[in-house]
Every structure is written in C-alpha cells, then in structure tokens.
Amino acid sequence: MQRVKSFLIQVPLWLYFIISVYPLFWMISYSLKDNNEIFVTNPFGLPTQFRYENYINAWTQFNLPQYFMNSVVVSTVATLFIVILALMFSFAIARLRWRFREAVRLYMLVGMFMPLQVIMIPLAILVKDFHLANTYGALIIPYIVIGLPFSSLIFYGFMRDIPSEIEEAACMDGASVYRLFTKIIVPVVVPAIATVVIFQFLNNWNEFMLANILISDESMKTLPLGLLFFQGQYSTDWGGMGAVMTIASLPMVIIYLFFSEQVERAMTMGSAVKG
Amino acid sequence: MKSTKSLYSYGFLLPAGIIFFIFFLLPTIVSFFFSMTRWTLTDWEFIGLDNFIMFFKESSLNIGFRNTFIYAVMTSGTKVVLGLLLAVLLTSGIRSKDFLRSVVFFPTLISTIAVGITFSYLMHPSRGLINTALAALGIQGPNWLGDPALAIYSVGLVDIWKGVGFATVIYIAGMMSIPADYYEAVDIDGGNAFRKFWHITLPLIRPAMNSVIILSFIGGLRTFDLVWTMTKGGPGFSSDLIASIIYKQYQGGFYGLSTAGNVILFVIVAVLAFPLYRFLTKREVDL
C-alpha cells in the first residue's frame, strides 16, 4: 500500500520534472551543436561532439560582453538601492509611530497594482528631461522605483512582526534611531533581504519592456534587448544563439543557488507571503 | 521628543517616497492627462475621450480586452491549481524532494525572452520537438503559434510552464509554516490524508494562496514580453494583448492613443485586482 502511494506521488512529480527541465536541457545542448546536428542528425539529444566554439564565437563576435556588463551594472546597482531604500521606508512605516504612516503605506501599495505600461511614455520623456537618456541611470532609476513597492511590502511584513521588547531594550540602553535601525532591525530581517535581492535582481536582469523603450544606444543595451536583436540578426547561427541564451540565463541560476536557502527560510517565516 | 521622532521618520521615508513620486506617480498622473490628447511628444491637442472611444470601437484594438482576459484567467487559474498540487506532492515526505524543489523554480529564473525564443523553436509546426514527439505517437500536432485560434493559448501554456514554479514555492512556504501538531490532532481523531488537506492545509495556506492568485492574475493582465517574443500579437491580431497593442501604438507614434490604452489597462487592473485583494485578505484565517 505504502509502495503504491509513493509510486502515485513520484510519477507525476518526475513527469513534471521532465517537462520543466527538458526545454532548458535542450537549450543548453543545442548551444553545443552545429546547425546540421540541430536540424537533421540529432535535434533532441545530447550533442555528439561538444562544440564549445559556439560560446567563444558568441562572446567574441557579438557585442555580448558589453550587453553582459551593462546588465550586471544596471541590475546590481538598482537592486542595491532598492534594498536600502525599501528597508528605510518600511522601517519608518512599520516601527516608528507618526500620523500619516497608514496613508503612506497605501501610497506605496498603489505601485503593486499599477501596470508598468502606464508610466512608460511619460517616463521616457522624464528620463530625457533629466538628461538620463542612454545612460545607466535611464534604467537604474526606473528599476528602483518599480522594485520599491513589492520590496517594501515584504520588509514591512517582517518588521511588523518583530517584538517591540527588543526595541525597548535597545532604547533603554540609549541607542539612537539609526543604531536601532542598523544594529537591531536590519540584522533580524536578513532572510527577507535575501528574498528581495533574488526577486529584484531577477526582475532587473530580465526586464525587457522599459529597456526596449528607454535605450536606443547600442553600447547601453542590456541582455534581453541583445537576445531579441541576435534572434533577428543572426537567425542562421542557431548554436551561437543557444550559447547567447545560456550565457544570459546562467547568472540567475548561480545567484539563486547561492541565496536559495535564505529565501526558503524567509518564505517559511510566513510574513513574506502574507503581505 | 515627539517632533524629533517624526523628523527621523521623514528622514527614513523621504528618499523612497520622493523617487517613487517623481518617477511613478507623476508619470501616472501625466498619463491620465495625455490619454485625452492627440500627442506628438512636443505638441498636444485636447480631444476629450476620442482615444478611449477608438480603443473600444476599433476591432484591432478591442480584441486585446478579450485576449487579455482569457490569458489572465487561464494562466493564473492553472498556476493556482497546479502550483497547489505540486506543493502538496513536494511536501509529502518523499525521497529526492529537496532536489525536485529547487528544480521546480528553475524555469522562473530564465529570461522571458530566452524562454520565448526557445519555445518558438519547440513549437515549430513541422520541425519542433513537440510536434515531432506527437507525430511519433501518431498524432498530427497543431500549428501552435501559427493558428489564429490557438496562438494565445500556446503562449499561455509557456507562461504557465515558466510561472508555476513560483506559485509552488509560495505554497510550499505556506505549508511549512503550519505547525505539525495540527496534523497530529487529525491523526488522533483518525482522519485520513484528505481530511488533513481539506481541514488543515487548505484553510491555513489561504494567505499563500491569495498571494498566488493576486500576483499571477495581475501578472497575466500586464503580460508583454512573452507574447511579444513569441508571436508579436499575431497571426494578424489574434494573440494581441492590451500591453502589446499599447506598444504597437507607441511604435506607430500614436502616443495619445497608446497612453489611453495604458489608462484603460490601469483601470482594468484596479477594478479587478484591488477588490479581489480586499476580498481575499478578509477571508484569511490567522494561525
């Protein structure tokens, strides 16, 4: 009986495993094949001969290093600011008592429900007016703004649940508000920070729509723009295309593996998903 | 004392508050105004609600409402159900569950553009893996992205493939925070696995379920990247979503019309998602 039950659970899971992993396996394996193998001799299995030159070609012939660099800079800086600003903001609305804090919380919550497209065109004009067009700032600032509501909501959920005794004890010892923030509150919400880092870095790294509108300069393009550009431009070099897509996807997988334990802890603490 | 404290609050609040205002709320307000103009970025002419009327009357524009609604309901509905199912299986104490859990999340990590391109290949009517596999079983596979009646659903399937892992992770987190003695109580009463699920798991993961419903529904309403990569709204306008229509109008230089589309999308999200959020969060059971 136990065997049958275990079998009934395992089968759908492994089926799902194949469905969710095979397309990724396929992408990576064709990044190591030539066109003949991709289309004719061996479309679906492991490459018979690993053609690492696809990667070397992708890296040297396309403008890939530049795109990669841009994505790293934009995603890292934006994520850093999102974390700092959202931590401060949620601290003010979760732990400090003042008159309009509920109103201010709703003010930020609006951003959660706002489709990004609404700000698209005015944002393009604004970016131009601030002389940010075709600079890193053209993406970094909007990404910070887009990331703030969700991140603040997560931090708010965590900070709200911190027992006030901890704070009172610190205040008795004469700690200032800044000390309270940096030495007491921030260390407690480290798992939440890991969660926010992953999700915001993921969003920034893969963001396409705004980048597509705000960036026209070739030297400022990020990877998602590059991917779509390659697809149009080098549509005959399939192996190279696969290599580009694999290179673009790899950093997120690495970051996830690096932070996933913290994220699982944060989410299990419940607050993160409660909102 | 009190005033110094509120001074501190503003210090913590203002950096985020100001940047959010300038780059988010201000553009939104500006959008509302320009949606009622004929707009060339340098010049504008006030034309009242003409843009909105056009959006509802023109069939190449209003097809977006139908498609967006179908898309959002299909993708979020499937993610809510399938994610729950996977989460239940993955928390059932089987071997290799840790490994499977991290794998489930992988598709979420891959760039939407890369996913779109990869699946366009996989869904190729004659050379793609999916139809080749179906042919091996003696089934004539459909033209996934080339059939106007099917394209939007095909894109939706890929969205589900990519997003269900995220839903699953949220569910698993919700389930892990349920204290084990709740289940033991059912054991003592002689309840079976189904009773545990129905009377303990389901009510207590409501907050997680609400997050999944809201996030995936809003995500579905504002989808752009995937449909743009896979079909560009085609064939014809058959898989156009509101977001891709807005983008096409923007590309065409119809800024006023495009902005009107943005405002409509905003209103739709506000009218559907916000009450849903209020309704769902009211029914949560506290631990």
TrEMBL record, chain A:
Belongs to the binding-protein-dependent transport system permease family. It is found in: Cell membrane. It is a multi-pass membrane protein. Keywords: Cell membrane, Membrane, Transmembrane, Transmembrane helix, Transport. Its main location: membrane. The keyword Transmembrane applies. PANTHER family: ABC TRANSPORTER PERMEASE PROTEIN MG189-RELATED, ABC TRANSPORTER PERMEASE PROTEIN MG189-RELATED-RELATED. The chain crosses the membrane at residues 7-28, 72-94, 106-127, 139-159, 180-202, 238-259. This is ABC transporter permease protein YurM.
UniProtKB/TrEMBL annotation, chain B:
It is a multi-pass membrane protein. It comes from the Bacteria. The keyword Plastid does not apply. Its main location: membrane. PROSITE patterns: ABC_TM1. Belongs to the binding-protein-dependent transport system permease family. This is ABC transporter permease subunit.
